[in-house]
Design brief:
The chain has a single domain (about 1-149), classed as Rossmann fold. By secondary structure, the protein is α/β, with parallel strands linked by helices. The relative contact order is 0.15. The chain has a three-stranded parallel beta sheet with strand order 3-4-5, with helices on both faces. A two-stranded parallel sheet has the order 1-2. It has helices spanning about 1-10, 25-35, 45-55, 70-75, 85-90, 100-115, 115-135, 140-149, and strands at about 15-20, 40-45, 55-60, 80, 95-100. The protein is globular.
């Protein structure tokens, strides 16, 4: 929320959508209002049409395993902005931006919002990376190697 609000304050034409709900929905809604962030809370929503219209996925949380949302976005050719946690960092590599500095993330979001060709290029890089890491036959090649070693 803070990175998207920062990008919007800097004049970037950004809009965030949050799909899903949970025990922190009221807290998230209050933060959107407090920041004046251009973010819409959708509740439960089908992610496929959302990814079709999105040019990036933002996933900032304090703890994640290896998030399916990041994999799905990358498979769909969308770059990812995410928290600097091991699972996200591993998936994203250098195809997106991983970190906890709101200013850096807001600037990166603004850059892609202003340059759709760059957003497409980064999305293609993300798709290539996730496809090199995960295949239909062996979704977790690194884990498989570790367990069979």
């Amino acid at each position: 929320m803070r990175a998207i609000a920062g990008a919007a304050r800097a004049g970037s034409p950004v809009r965030g959508l949050i799909a899903g709900d949970g025990p922190r929905s009221a807290e998230i809604s209050a933060l959107v209002q407090e920041l004046g962030a251009p973010v819409e809370l959708l509740g439960q929503a089908d992610p496929v049409p959302l990814l079709e219209q999105a040019w990036a996925l933002c996933l900032f949380s304090r703890s994640e395993g290896t998030p399916l949302a990041v994999m799905e976005a990358m498979w769909a050719g969308r770059t990812v902005f995410g928290s600097d946690v091991p699972g996200i960092r591993h998936l994203v590599g250098d195809t997106g931006v991983v970190g906890d500095d709101v200013g850096v993330l807001a600037a990166a979001i603004s850059e892609l919002a202003a340059d759709h060709a760059l957003a497409s290029l980064r999305g293609a890089e993300a798709a290539g990376r996730v496809r090199s890491l995960i295949s239909a036959d062996t979704p977790w090649p690194e884990l498989e190697r570790d367990y069979t070693a």
